[in-house]
Amino acid sequence: VMTEGLFRGWIAALSKAAPIAVTIKMERKKLITKDQVLAIVGPSRSGTTMAVIPIVEEAKVPLISCAAAEAIVVPVKSWVFKTPQKDSHAAVRIYETMKLQGISKIAIITGTTGFGDQGRKQLKKLAPELEIEIVADETYGPDDTDMTAQLTKIKASEAQAVVNWSIVPGQVIVAKNMRQLGMKIPLFQSHGFGNIKYAQTAGEAGEGIIFPCGRLLAVDTLADDHPQKEVLARYKKEYEAKYEEDVSTFGGHAWDGLQLVIAALREVGPDREKIRDYIENTKNFVGTGGIFNFSPEDHSGLTKDAFEMLTVKNEKFVVLE
């Protein structure tokens, strides 16, 4: 891309976990005003993205977030897009899978992060229309290391399954605590579980976890004529060769965002507004997260069909049968 003369360089700015830290860092780095960046790919966390949105909207700089929370793009913000699949679509796929398994009463347990809060909102909003009854609703902080108190309450409820919606390390702690308490009901995780390291860290407690995920983690099961197969297989091969570790969905979200910016630069050149307009009108872009179709009304570009339901078997991800 550099040799094509599309841009002179790129700037990597690392952010701290706290949303306010990103806001301060972006202002201090002056990515927009001093460095005159044409577009921003990231942040990778929902809370940090939400903190940055007012800045990029005011400055009119395209931002392609790598974070999942639906509130990033709903309601639509003129200059903000995202590549991970929507929270609502993940919740729907979880509930549809539960219905197929005869589950109607559930417990939800969520982290009090931006991602966890937004997931909880979607789980509660969509449950009635999909005929799912939430009989227990618990939360925990991002620094909590033991959720047995919350899970003990859930165990005493009529819940037939548990949905955990959080980022690490909460996902693993909940799984281990459920095993310690002798809970036998299924554990569903959000699409934030898409890294095999999480399943490996959970060990035996991770066996049987069910979660929605993009097809990157199931590429080997796809038919050769699947529209994503070539892109996913190439990304997986190149990523694992370079980093010598199993691929995860999260790097794929950044790759998708960067490819969208590169495609825009090739077509319209170094103009922020034209880049924004190009991305907003992109159709049938094959990425790692799905096949994207953006519009003025949809800055996510994906449907619920971008998800596969996966499960953990012998510390590996496999398609749920």
Automatic annotation (TrEMBL):
Keywords for this protein: Signal
InterPro entries xref list: BCAA_transport, Leu-bd, Peripla_BP_I
UniProt xrefs under Pfam families: Peripla_BP_6
Domain Leucine-binding protein: 29-301
Name by which UniProt lists this protein: Leucine-binding protein domain-containing protein
